[in-house]
Each structure stands twice: as structure tokens, then as C-alpha cells.
Backbone:
């Protein structure tokens, strides 16, 4: 059984897409077990959440298995 992960900053429970995007964008951090939610990634990277969502869809179209 998989354990749920939470955002390292706000402690929100993460979706598979948020975990996947964390792995794609912050590989060294996720190797330490640190993941971020969309809101915190948006603030940290200074990009709109819509841009992050679009990137997830792009990765899905490319066949990346990290996303649900």
C-alpha cells in the first residue's frame, strides 16, 4: 500500500500529478523525500498554476509515467 505524501511547506496532501511534477522539476529534493504542492511550486517558481498545469499536460502527452 502506497503512503500519501504531503507538501514540505504547507503540508497539503499531494496528488499524483503534484508528486510527478515535483520529481520532474526538483529531482534532488524529491530524492530526499521533499515534495511540493501546486500552490507552493507556483509561488516558489513565480509562475501561474495554469502554467504548471500546462506543463503536466505536456509531460502526459510525451508519455511520462510519473503523472496520473
Residues:
Amino acid at each position: 500500500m502506497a503512503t500519501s505524501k504531503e507538501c514540505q511547506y504547507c503540508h497539503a496532501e499531494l496528488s499524483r500529478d503534484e508528486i510527478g511534477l515535483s520529481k520532474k522539476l526538483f529531482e534532488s529534493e524529491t530524492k530526499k523525500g521533499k515534495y511540493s504542492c501546486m500552490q507552493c511550486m507556483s509561488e516558489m517558481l513565480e509562475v501561474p498554476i495554469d502554467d504548471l498545469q500546462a506543463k503536466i499536460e505536456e509531460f502526459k502527452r510525451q508519455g511520462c509515467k510519473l503523472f496520473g
